Amino acid sequence: PDEERVEEMVREMLLDHTHEEVPYIAGVTCQAIRALSPTKSRVDVDILVDNGRQQRIVVGDKGRTLVKIRQTAAEALEDIFQKTVILYLWVKVRSKHEEENDEERLL
User: Fold this and answer.
1) For residue 96, with 0-12 CB atoms within 10 Å meaning exposed, 13-18 middle and 19 or more buried, which class applies?
2) How far out from the chain centre does Cα 86 lie?
3) Which of 15, 36, 62, 88 is least buried, going by the fewest C-beta atoms within 10 A?
4) Using alpha carbons only, how large is the chain's radius of gyration in Å?
5) Whole-number Å distance between alpha carbons of 31 and 45
6) Other C-beta atoms within 10 Å of 101: how many?
7) How far apart are CA 50 and CA 95, in angstroms?
8) Residue 91 DSSP SS3
9) 32-56 per-position pLDDT tens digit
10) Which pTM was predicted?
């Protein structure tokens, strides 16, 4: 599905631009894909990290790293979907409750 392709692309760009300083287990979840017109879509993605340090790495100095991740992922998604992609990335620190749910899923 399209959501999985979006998540895979954002995860790949996240690892490329953070030079793997953020663990592979960082969560990437596509929250929504909305068609704005026949040639344009809005995509909202959450990037879930374990702590504030990882969040600062992902965002980068003055947001530069996050902008690079967004730009390269959006360009790749435009090639895949053959339409303009407006990509919104939201970097969030996992709550203790989310961590417990993740651990339960692994069991």
Assistant:
1) exposed
2) 13
3) 62
4) 14
5) 5
6) 12
7) 8
8) strand
9) 999 999 999 999 999 999 999 999 9
10) 0.84
Region of 60 please: left (phi>0), alpha (psi -120 to 50) or beta.
Answer: left
Q: Pull the structure tokens for residue 86.
A: 């407006």
Do the beta carbons of residue 71 and residue 88 sit within 8 Å? no
3-class SS at 16?
A: helix
As a 3-state breakdown, the chain gives helix, strand, coil percent values, each rounded to 5, of: 50, 30, 20
Question: What secondary structure letter does DSSP report for 56?
Answer: H
Distance in angstroms between the alpha carbons of the first and the last residue of the chain = 25
CA–CA gap between residue 13 and residue 18 (Å, rounded): 8
Nearest to 7 by CA among 36, 58, 43, 55: 43
